[in-house]
From TrEMBL:
UniProt superkingdom: Bacteria
Pfam families: HATPase_c (PF02518), HisKA (PF00512), HTH_18 (PF12833), Reg_prop (PF07494), Response_reg (PF00072), Y_Y_Y (PF07495)
Organism, as annotated: Breznakibacter xylanolyticus
GO function terms (MF aspect): ATP binding; DNA-binding transcription factor activity; phosphorelay sensor kinase activity; sequence-specific DNA binding
Residues carrying 4-aspartylphosphate: D1258
Name used for this protein in its record: histidine kinase
Domain HTH araC/xylS-type: 1357-1454
Catalytic activity from the UniProt record: ATP + protein L-histidine = ADP + protein N-phospho-L-histidine
PROSITE patterns: HIS_KIN, HTH_ARAC_FAMILY_1, HTH_ARAC_FAMILY_2, RESPONSE_REGULATORY
Boundaries of every Response regulatory domain copy: 1210-1325
EC number(s) given by UniProt: 2.7.13.3
EC class (word): transferase
């Protein structure tokens, strides 16, 4: 046993320093998008994404943005608990994590779905189970153990890119020994070992490959821990109470090492086993750490600071690190077994935590880092055998964000990431220090703004660096020291007590004197030279300032630059009065020769920098351009400068006019830095034009405000800016940026404050001291960039796999082909280099092949935007570049296809072509038809004109005979000795003759209007009286139709100018139409209203109304809006409208279907509107007579139905025209007693009531026409037997066929001959009577022998069948009527009408015929009498003889004839 050698290193001996190894920490927290500030786990996946587990979800970080995955509400397929404790990945790229509740989840980053094991919603045993162990068995197979639910086998399924899961429990065919799994181990032969609390299970590689899950249960009474270790020959398994189970892989033997045969420590649970350097390390819970040599079976107790091993870590330097419950850590040297103890947590901080919870991590450089719970981050320095700690400092934002460190990892470029928590934690990125760059702070104690703001730097002959700060102090540094050895302060100027002068320029001349140029206090020159033995604290200065009374004095007290031109001669640049040539005269007096814009062509008096080039050209940088002059010209007092300015029209001119610094490089090229235009390199050769080469932020410069420039010994150019320092490689013009985000301590540098020291160190002064760069120590480490697509946006909305109508089948990072719809052609793509360098330094370039030919170099922008791309195939390419300006060759390529809209697809084009062909055909056909129609229309128009002319001529011819008819009629009617019947007929003739004359006149007037030949004879009319006369003429008609008819006049004496005859036509037509289309019980009103300018005559009815879509056609010629029952010529309203227009008036109509219509005639007052019109003649003092049309025939035909002679035949006449109705009824008398009806609906109940012998009906009638009435009659059993004769003006054959098909017995067209009508009616009735009489006489009443309809035949058959079934009973009329479903009266009338027999007679005949049939079959008379319902045989014999003419006994039997005897 080795003796314990413990090296206790206290915190006083441990070097705690900020800046050794780590430059600073860069923080990411919720303000940067992290879901929560406690980071438990960080993992870098194969693509380079960082996965961060927090208390509130899983985060994916790409260097720019955090993408958060967490469970919200009842969202499916998410993690069970948002507190993610641990993250790792498997061989297939799935991200695994353990949540706080113990469940394991694997996340598919391609389709962004989670799966949980044990299954969260399965059996109760799984709900209470937790993940315990994980094994990547093969690249396509994972095994996972659980605390309560056995073991899970996960096999990768490439088809659906997920795992198929098989669970093995302690029950079933493939059972394991116990469900509580503590370890899973695959040995070197790929056999599987599964440890549980009840034995260990063995599954051979062969069985696994053959899918034969036959677990061998071993040592089922032993509880195994999670400890397992394996060397070349043995496998050791830790147990809870039985020591270690050992297995020999060669002879397959098992044996136990326990306290009795090996070491007392094995009496305790074995919690840790590590196989290292052919030795086993055994950690126990209670008896410390033991080292075992399995070959010699030598057991060595390794003492450490505790007895319980919590963690055992073997590093890459063959050191074993042991932790326990007690604070601190023990390092064991595996070769010597010597141990070293280290305290990690400060004593004053022990109370803040219960355990240190060590997190071990070795970086790519094999440096060991330990994260501590409460003591920050510890780095083991192997050279000093000490830990360097990095802890949070509340006053320094560059320190660790929290002292609670949970996890450590590295990305692919070696950047280290720290997960911290609880108190102001988050994700910290480690920015490492570089030996090539040091930070020098002149006065660490001075916290003022100007205390460490360096404004000028100089190195003297003693290699002492003079550093002037803006608080008026000069700090002196030796070359290898980081702290100043002396500070020069209280620089007192002559004639002034001011202190704290700001030094902007310093120079040591060739004699060793120090020159100080200040801003505001002139120049100070040391009184003594600085040599090797100079005491710096005894230096004093002589001051020179501007004197307004001395032209040879210093031109300005603001000194920005001083150079030496030659021994004893100097050039001073002032910021306000040009330059000054200084020299010391005899007696020590300084003489200044001033050159400014007043005495030369100097471009500006604001001089910032001066340089004497190798060719003795003096270059002067001013706030407005560059000036150049040969030094010889100054000696000759010739101040003619060459000037250089920025010209927008000359690309190779100076980039900016405000020039800050001038520098000459090793190749004797001149450099000019500007205050906003970057840097310029002058490319100048004799006999060639001046050309400036520009370097700006577009090429990678940190900022376009460049303050200083130096060149190192390797030829690199270094430029200080307001955003760091840029290094240019002149061989390829590539740039690398150093700033506070990577290697520098601050970003802002001062003007002309830079120096290259004697040993090649570059010094740059700025806002917080000096940056010392040692280029020879600079090691360029080229970062690797795995540029990846991170987000897709369509119409500025982020698109994921699960977005509605998402084009992504996989996460954009895993997508190589993207197919978009035509409306998704405005999109943007985010990308990241995943190098996690300074985002301001990174540069990107992208292009879209097939859309653009050149790369878009967009600097540090990481988003490509495209809008309104046409459909097509594209290839998106993106690449990255570091600050060094080297473009990485690894491009990320995405194929994009934008689908065309449906109307731009090939099948759409085919459809369009087809439609075009069809359309062309139809257009051609339509044009052809239109030409034909046009020709037919012209022809038809000509024919119509001829027809109209013919009708007009006929109308003229008709007027003459009508006049000869009406005149004599008037004379005859006026005779007083006419019979009433003759007078009545003559008045009907007169009335219809007048109507024919009215229609003829309207046709002639219509023709006149059409040919513009209508003339008006207008005169003043009392419209009230005139309208009232017309109104009164329609009173009888209104009364007859039972219409409420009224006249209203709302003015006293209305007068209008109008043509009496034409106005009569208008009002007549309006009233006639109103009464025609208004039903009984409704209202018609004629109303007259007066306005200041017009008189309105309105006809208001409550009739049927007019549909809104028909109103525009109401006044169109030949428009017939009524149904066939009330249709007219279609001329009346059109004629009235045209006549109203001729009067300068209008007719307006309002109507609502079912509510009625209002026609309003509006006539203007006075006659001014009628004058000066050739077709109108104005007549004054005219005498008005009523127009003939208004003289009505007052006779209204009576349509009542008296039955004068009930015993004669009855005819039901149905006609809507009262005159024709009355005429038909008069014509049918005296042969028929007539019943009248005006429509089918009124006729139906009359037919049922009166059972007429015949029905004569018109076809076209209101309410119900003749066709519908006949159909109803023939379908009803009560009326189907009634014969029907139709009268109609429709003489088409099809109309006649329709009438006959409805059941009409005859169809007579109008005009008809009344004698013919009478003959048809009588013949139909008499024919039926004769047939019935004949049958009655010859005893042959059978349905088939009657000329009746099929419905009537069915009726008789039904009745005869009833009698045949019931003839033996006492049948009466009521029983027969009930059987036929008819009333007694209807039944009687129907039987009588069909058979000319009463029902009793019909029943008697039927019984007697049945009796005859029975007699023929051999029955005797008595039997037959009783069988047919006769109780009295004698009465039966009398009835039989009365019907047949002989007695029943004489009726022949079958085969014989009746006897003639009585």
């Amino acid at each position: 046993m080795h003796k314990l050698s413990v090296c206790v290193i206290t915190f006083l001996l441990i070097h705690v320093a900020y800046g050794q190894g780590i430059f600073r920490f860069e923080h990411y927290n919720t303000q940067n998008g992290l879901s929560q500030n406690t980071v438990f786990s960080v993992h870098c996946d194969p693509k380079g994404f960082l996965w961060i587990g927090t208390m509130n979800g899983l985060n994916r970080f790409d260097g720019y943005d955090f993408k958060i995955y967490k469970s919200i509400g009842s969202q499916p397929n998410m993690i069970t608990n948002n507190r993610v404790s641990r993250i790792w990945d498997d061989a297939r790229g799935f991200i695994w994590m353990e949540s706080y509740d113990g469940y394991y989840h694997f996340f598919n980053p391609k389709n962004e779905t989670f799966n949980t094991l044990p299954r969260y919603s399965a059996f109760e045993e799984e709900q209470n189970s937790k993940g315990t162990c994980f094994l990547q068995y093969t690249p396509n197979e994972v095994w996972m153990g659980a605390s309560n639910s056995g073991v899970y086998r996960l096999q990768y399924q490439e088809a659906n890119d997920t795992y198929s899961i098989t669970q093995f429990l302690s029950r079933g065919t493939n059972a394991i020994s116990n469900n509580k799994v503590s370890l899973i181990h695959a040995d070197s032969d790929n056999n599987l070992w599964i440890g549980t609390i009840r034995g260990i299970n063995f599954l051979s590689k062969t069985d696994i490959e053959n899918q034969n899950m036959n677990f061998q249960h071993l040592n089922v009474d032993i509880e195994f821990t999670g400890a397992v270790a394996e060397n070349n020959t043995e496998i050791w398994f830790g147990t809870r109470q039985n020591g270690i189970l050992c297995y020999n892989k060669q002879n397959h033997a098992f044996w136990f090492r326990n306290a009795s045969n090996s070491h007392p420590a094995l009496s305790m649970p074995v919690t840790h086993l590590v196989a290292k350097d052919n030795r086993f390390w055994v950690g126990t819970a209670g008896m410390g750490l033991v080292n075992v040599n399995p070959e010699t079976n030598q057991w060595i107790s390794v003492p450490f600071h505790d007895q319980t091993v919590l963690d055992l870590y073997a590093d890459r330097h063959h050191q074993m690190w042991v932790t326990g419950n007690l604070f601190g850590i023990t390092r064991v040297e595996t070769a010597t077994m010597q141990t070293h103890y280290y305290e990690l947590t400060p004593k004053d901080n022990l109370y803040a935590t219960d355990l240190e919870r060590h997190y071990f991590y070795e970086d790519k450089d094999n440096r060991l880092w330990i994260g501590l719970h409460g003591a920050g981050l510890a780095n083991y320095d192997r050279n000093t055998d000490a830990f360097v700690f990095y802890r949070n400092n509340g006053t320094d934002p560059n320190t660790l964000s929290s002292n609670i460190v949970h996890c450590i990892t590295e990305d692919h470029n070696g950047n280290m990431w720290i997960g911290t928590g609880q108190n102001n934690g988050g994700l910290d990125k480690v920015i490492r220090t570089t030996p090539a760059i040091r930070h020098l702070i002149p006065d660490e104690k001075d916290k003022s703004q100007n205390g460490n703001l360096v404004r000028c730097i100089m190195e003297d002959n003693n290699q002492v660096r003079w550093v002037a700060t803006k608080n008026g102090k000069i700090h002196l540094f030796r070359s290898k020291e980081s702290n100043p050895f002396q500070t020069i302060n209280l620089i007192t100027t002559p004639n002034s007590s001011e202190q704290g002068n700001n030094v902007y320029a310093m120079l040591q001349d060739d004699r060793g004197f120090i020159w100080l140029g200040t801003k505001g206090e002139g120049i100070g020159i040391s009184k003594n030279p600085v040599t090797q033995g100079t005491s710096y604290n005894q230096l004093s200065f002589e001051w020179f300032k501007h004197n307004d009374n001395d032209s040879t004095s210093l031109p300005s007290n603001n000194i920005y630059d001083i150079i030496q031109l030659s021994p004893g001669r100097f050039c001073i640049g002032t910021f306000g009065n040009g330059i000054s040539l200084a020299s010391r005269r005899m007696g020590g007096k300084m003489e200044f020769v001033n050159i400014n814009t007043a005495n030369s062509n100097l471009s500006s008096n604001l001089v910032r920098s001066i340089l004497l080039a190798h060719d003795n050209q003096l270059w002067i940088a001013t706030a407005f351009g560059i000036n150049c002059i040969d030094i010889k010209s100054l000696d000759q007092a010739q101040f003619q400068f060459r000037t250089f300015f920025h010209s927008p029209d000359t690309p190779e001119s100076l980039s900016y006019n405000d020039v800050v610094h001038i520098f000459e490089d090793n190749e004797q090229h001149l450099w000019f830095t500007t205050y906003g235009g970057g840097a310029n390199r002058l490319n100048y050769k004799k006999d060639q034009p001046i050309r400036f080469i520009h370097y700006s932020s577009d090429q990678g410069l940190g900022n376009d405000i460049v303050m200083g420039i130096l060149q190192d010994n390797n030829g690199y150019i270094w430029l200080s800016t307001e955003n760091g320092i840029s290094k240019i490689d002149l061989r390829n013009n590539q740039m690398e940026l150093y700033n506070a985000n990577n290697k520098l301590f601050f970003n802002s540098f001062s003007e002309n404050t830079c120096l290259k020291t004697h040993n090649g160190t570059l010094l740059f002064g700025g806002s917080n001291g000096l940056v010392a760069i040692h280029p020879e120590m600079e090691q360029l480490q080229k970062a690797t960039y795995r540029i990846e697509l991170t987000n897709l946006f369509i119409a500025n909305k982020e698109i994921t796999v699960h977005s509605p109508n998402s084009p992504l089948k996989q996460n954009i990072s895993y997508t190589d082909v993207l197919e978009l719809n035509h409306h998704q052609n405005a999109f943007s793509i985010q990308f990241s280099s995943l190098g996690y360098e300074d985002n301001m330094v990174m540069k990107y370039a992208y292009k879209l092949d097939n859309f653009e030919s050149d790369w878009n170099e967009v600097g540090n922008q990481n988003r490509a935007v495209y809008t309104n791309l046409p459909p097509g195939r594209y290839t998106f390419r993106v690449k990255a570049s570091s600050g060094a300006g080297i473009w990485d060759t690894n491009e990320r390529v995405l194929s994009i296809r934008i689908l065309p809209p449906w109307y731009r697809t090939w099948w759409a084009y085919l459809m369009f072509l087809t439609i075009l062909v069809i359309a062309t055909y139809w257009v051609h056909r339509t044009l052809t038809q239109l030409n034909l129609y046009r020709h037919d229309l012209l022809l038809e128009k000509k024919v119509n004109q001829m027809k109209l002319q013919f009708f007009t001529n006929i109308s003229h011819e008709i007027r003459t005979p009508l006049t000869l008819i009406i005149g004599p009629l008037e004379d005859i009617i006026n005779k007083s000795n006419l019979p009433d019947a003759v007078g009545k007929q003559l008045r009907v003739i007169r009335k219809n003759a007048r109507r024919m004359l009215m229609l003829t006149n309207q046709l002639l007037d219509f023709r006149k209007i059409q040919n513009n030949k209508m003339t008006l004879q207008v005169s003043e009319i009392d419209i009230k009286r005139f309208a009232l006369d017309i109104f009164n003429s329609f009173e009888p008609l209104a009364a007859h139709k039972n219409i409420h008819y009224s006249f209203e006049c709302n003015t006293d004496d209305p007068k209008v100018w109008a043509d009496v005859s034409r106005l009569d036509i208008i009002i007549y037509n309006l009233l006639s139409n109103a009464l025609k289309f208004t039903d009984s019980g409704k209202t018609v009103t004629l109303r007259i209203d007066e306005t200041p300018d017009a008189v309105n005559i309105a006809v208001i009815d409550h009739g049927r109304g007019i549909a809104p879509e028909l109103l525009p056609e109401i006044f169109t010629r030949y428009t017939i809006l009524s149904t066939n029952d009330l249709s007219g010529t279609g001329i009346g309203l059109s004629l009235s409208y045209e006549l109203a227009k001729l009067h300068g008036g209008t007719i307006e109509v309002t109507s609502e279907p079912g509510q009625g219509s209002t026609f309003t005639l509006c006539l203007k007052k006075g006659n001014q509107h009628l004058t000066n019109q050739p077709e109108i003649t104005i007549i004054h003092d005219a005498i008005h007579q009523p127009h003939p049309l208004t003289i009505p025939d007052n006779e209204i035909v009576d349509t009542t139905n008296p039955l004068d002679e009930p015993q004669i035949r009855t005819a039901l006449v149905v006609e809507d025209n009262p005159e024709i109705l009355d005429y038909i009824c008069q014509s049918l008398r005296p042969e028929f007693n007539c019943i009248k009806a005006v429509n089918g609906q009124e006729a139906l109940p009359l037919a049922r009531q009166y059972n007429p012998s015949i029905i004569i009906t018109d076809v076209m009638m209101p309410v119900m026409d003749g066709i519908e009435m006949t159909r109803t009659l023939k379908e009803s059993i009560e009326t189907s037997h009634l014969p029907v004769v139709m009268l109609t003006a429709k003489n088409d054959v099809a109309d006649q066929i329709q009438g006959v098909e409805t059941g009409a017995e005859a169809y007579i067209t109008k005009p008809f001959n009344v004698e013919y009508l009478k003959s048809v009616a009588l013949n139909l009735v008499i024919q039926r009577e004769k047939i019935a009489g004949y049958l009655k006489k010859h005893k042959a009443i059978e349905p088939g022998n009657l000329n009746i309809s099929s419905k009537d035949e069915n009726f008789l058959n039904h009745l005869i069948e009833f009698i045949n079934q019931n003839y033996a009973n006492d049948i009466n009329i009521d029983q027969m009527a009930a059987h036929c479903c008819l009333s007694r009266t209807v039944f009687y009338n129907k039987v009588k009408s069909l058979t000319n027999l009463s029902p009793i007679e019909f029943l008697r005949q039927m019984k007697l015929k049945i009796a005859a049939q029975l007699l023929e079959k051999g029955y005797n008379v008595s039997e037959v009498a009783f069988r047919v319902g006769y109780n009295d045989v004698k009465y039966f014999s009398r009835q039989f003889k009365s019907f047949y003419g002989y007695t029943p006994s004489k009726h022949p039997t079958s085969g014989s004839s009746p006897s003639d005897e009585d």
